[in-house]
Write a structure and sequence with these properties.
D-Maltodextrin-Binding Protein, domain 2; 7-stranded mixed sheet; cell membrane; two-stranded antiparallel sheet; 40% helix; Extracellular solute-binding protein; alpha+beta; signal
Length: 442
């Protein structure tokens, strides 16, 4: 594979196809290798993942399809997030990356731009048909290449205390305008109670809300990146939440703290904008309120819209260092499309599958125990998942997220201008891209 400074990929947004330059090395030419077909005999693969219980899921492969194909997979438990991305890139520079890695969707552009992931389009069969278009797009970056197979997703939705909404005479909001009105109405009826909080610790939540509003944080013009973190859609989101915090209509404290848990458990906060995995969190954070919550679609920016954002989710990718790319891709496809594998992932790992067929089968035919009062929980979740907006990730999501926590953390604490914090996020992300050697449109 020849070394080139830039290689163009194509990322499809909701209505347009745009050329994207991912820097540093050639990409698509690193696709599936003929070396697998020339090999015979047993193949051993190593898989880096943070998913709990993955070893039990992989055992199904090793004792079944893997035994037939003489392909054995060994799980190596890793940390998640930026820690794993850094470890993968370090190993890749030494030519010692594992065969397979679990990668969050927002990390894929970083890994691809560093030539760490192989194109496995020729080795995953009809896997594309198993996933919603918006989900599959995240693993292709909009090109004809396939850099991973989707594993789990985090479509966003609205959770609320059904009993307390009834007590306070509140209606479940279907628009963000109604959401704001609901927050204010609650404050009038119960001044010590908040509808929810804005948590500056959770950049993924804010990114998902911006995604729902139509934001495209990273796009390109020719060979140049465009950074649109402070675009009109995201400013609308920032101003909306900043306005509610400033007027005191909602709380301004971070989530996942003892104080937040207590607020949920005692009814001091009665709603939560979250994702499909929320029941697991609520089980721990608010154990005394089991059976009192309900889930509904995320409020919309207009009555005519029906779209949600994503908060979380990951994929299974094959590295360019693997000497067994075809075998690794076969396992990645099995792990995320086979019915038995997906049922095991749900049971052992508690994930919400990206596979559309799995969202209404196996473990997802009955509601989570915490939501036993809402029989249609997973039926509703599957409908919401299909409305997920396209994403637009870039090669330095980690920088944008770090600045979010710093700038929005200060703004939330001081109840100051969220728009200024957004501009800081934009400036830091652009500066970092330039520092890395990417060309950036001004």
């Amino acid at each position: 594979m020849p070394n080139t400074k830039r290689r163009r990929l194509f990322v499809r947004g909701a209505a347009a196809t745009i050329a994207v330059a991912l820097g540093a090395t050639a990409l698509a030419a690193c696709g599936s290798s003929d070396e697998d077909s020339a090999e015979s005999g047993p193949v051993s693969l190593t898989y880096w993942t943070w998913t709990p219980g993955m070893d039990k899921v992989v055992d199904l492969w090793n004792k079944g399809q893997g035994k037939k194909d003489q392909i054995t997979v060994t799980v190596k438990k890793q940390a998640s997030g930026d820690t794993l991305v850094t470890k993968i890139l370090t190993a890749h520079k030494a030519g010692k990356a594992p065969d397979l890695v679990q990668a969050e969707y927002q990390a894929l552009p970083t890994l691809v731009s560093n030539d760490a992931l192989a194109d496995i389009a020729k080795n995953v069969g009809d896997a594309k048909s198993k996933f919603a278009d918006g989900v599959w797009q995240q693993t292709t970056l909009g090109t004809d290449a396939v850099y991973a197979v989707p594993q789990d997703i985090g479509p966003m939705m609205f959770y609320y205390r059904a009993d307390l909404f009834k007590k306070y005479g509140l209606t479940v909001p279907t628009t963000w305008e109604q959401f704001a009105a609901t927050a204010r109405a609650l404050k009038e009826k119960a001044p010590e109670t908040d509808l929810t909080t804005f948590s500056a610790n959770d950049s993924g939540l804010f990114a998902g809300l911006a995604q729902q509003a139509g934001a495209k944080w990273w796009t390109t013009s020719g060979d140049k990146w465009n950074v649109g973190i402070n675009d009109a859609a995201t400013k609308k989101v920032a101003d909306f939440w900043g306005g509610l915090v400033k007027e005191g209509a909602i709380d301004n404290q971070p989530m996942y703290t003892p104080a937040w848990n207590k607020a949920l458990n005692t009814g001091k906060q009665i709603a939560w904008v979250s994702a499909v995995w929320a029941p697991g969190t609520l089980t721990t954070a608010a154990p005394d309120t089991k059976g009192k919550w309900a889930m509904a679609p995320l409020p919309q920016w207009s009555n005519s819209e029906n779209v949600t954002g994503s908060w979380g989710g990951s994929s299974t990718a094959v590295t360019t260092d693997s000497k067994h790319k075809e075998a690794a891709a076969k396992f990645a496809a099995w792990l995320n499309t086979d019915g038995d594998a997906l049922n095991a992932l749900a049971k052992e790992s508690g994930i919400y599958p990206a596979s559309t067929s799995a969202q209404l089968s196996g473990a997802f035919t009955t509601p989570p125990d915490y939501f036993s009062n809402q029989a249609d929980f997973y039926t509703t979740a599957a409908k919401i998942a299909k409305t997920t907006a396209p994403s637009a990730w870039g090669p330095n999501v980690n920088v944008a997220y770090t600045t979010f926590k710093d700038a929005f953390g200060a703004a939330a604490k001081d109840k100051s201008d969220f728009s200024a914090a957004l501009d800081k996020m934009q400036a830091d992300t652009v500066a970092d891209l330039k520092k890395q050697g990417f060309e950036v449109s001004e």
